[in-house]
Amino acid sequence: MGNHHSKKNIMIATQENEGNQIFFQHTMPNNVCFGCGHENHEGLKIKSHWEGDASVCVWESQEKYNGWKGIMNGGIIATIIDCHTMATATMHAYKVEGNRPWNSDPEYRYATGTLTVKYLKPTPNDVPVKLVARVTEVKGRKTVMTCELWSNDQKTAEADVVAIRVYDSSQQNGDNPFKG
Ligand SMILES: CCCCCCCCCCCCCC(=O)SCCNC(=O)CCNC(=O)[C@H](O)C(C)(C)COP(=O)(O)OP(=O)(O)OC[C@H]1O[C@@H](n2cnc3c(N)ncnc32)[C@H](O)[C@@H]1OP(=O)(O)O
């Protein structure tokens, strides 16, 4: 993990590191997103990190995110997949440009273009889930990914996701709703 990050990025992340783990979202100040923003105190606060070429997120739900009793709500599942894959697309772009740090130029932002979730099995809501995302293609402004959701040793959902680069500070002209 440490090898994928520059010294500068590691220093930024240090304040919020847990153990030796560096999470993508901890390098992104001012993120107010419901799923991944650590500035959103009502949010899900997911945390993602690299494990080789895959990005991984382990997340613990709460009873209020039930669908059926004891089963995780499908919209919450879509939300954590959405946020985990957008963070993955973002960090992947910086990674392929020489592992440059988040606060280097140009700045990129990604938004969800398409998110297709296949719900395979009920996902228990009282054990942590694990998301595993992989970038399968980068074409122009598009990053295509797959994402699996695991509960213990069972895959309970899988998704195909297309992220679109919606902000590039080197191309920016005028207002951009995705900048802030
Ligand atoms: C301040 C610090 C903050 C830190 C933040 C940290 C991270 C926070 C993370 C928060 C995470 C929160 C996550 C959220 O909740 S993001 C919120 C949910 N998503 C949105 O609101 C997006 C709304 N949609 C749009 O704005 C536009 O439609 C976009 C920008 C997506 C495309 O419109 P644009 O006019 O730009 O596109 P283009 O026509 O030039 O096409 C370009 C290419 O893209 C392909 N394409 C187009 N549309 C789609 C589509 N829907 N699916 C698949 N592919 C699509 C198209 O074929 C073409 O490819 P090719 O033909 O060239 O191959």
TrEMBL record:
Subcellular compartments: Cell projection, Ruffle membrane; Cytoplasm; Membrane
Q: GO:BP terms for this protein?
A: fatty acid metabolic process
Keyword Transit peptide annotated: yes
Q: Domain Thioesterase: where?
A: 70-157
Using the UniProt record, name the top-level EC class of this enzyme in a single word: hydrolase
* Family matches, as Pfam families: 4HBT
Q: Give the EC number(s) listed in the UniProt record.
A: 3.1.2.2
Membrane topology, as annotated, equals: Peripheral membrane protein
- Quote the cellular component terms of the Gene Ontology held in the record: cytoplasm; membrane
The reaction(s) annotated as catalysed by this protein in its Swiss-Prot or TrEMBL entry are: (5Z,8Z,11Z,14Z)-eicosatetraenoyl-CoA + H2O = (5Z,8Z,11Z,14Z)-eicosatetraenoate + CoA + H(+); octanoyl-CoA + H2O = octanoate + CoA + H(+); hexadecanoyl-CoA + H2O = hexadecanoate + CoA + H(+); dodecanoyl-CoA + H2O = dodecanoate + CoA + H(+)
One annotated GO molecular function? thiolester hydrolase activity
Q: Which UniProt keywords apply?
A: Apoptosis, Cell membrane, Cell projection, Cytoplasm, Fatty acid metabolism, Hydrolase, Lipid metabolism, Membrane, Transit peptide
Family indicated by similarity: Belongs to the THEM4/THEM5 thioesterase family.
PANTHER family (alphabetical): ACYL-COENZYME A THIOESTERASE THEM4
Protein's recorded name? Acyl-coenzyme A thioesterase THEM4
**The organism of origin for this protein:** Microscilla marina ATCC 23134
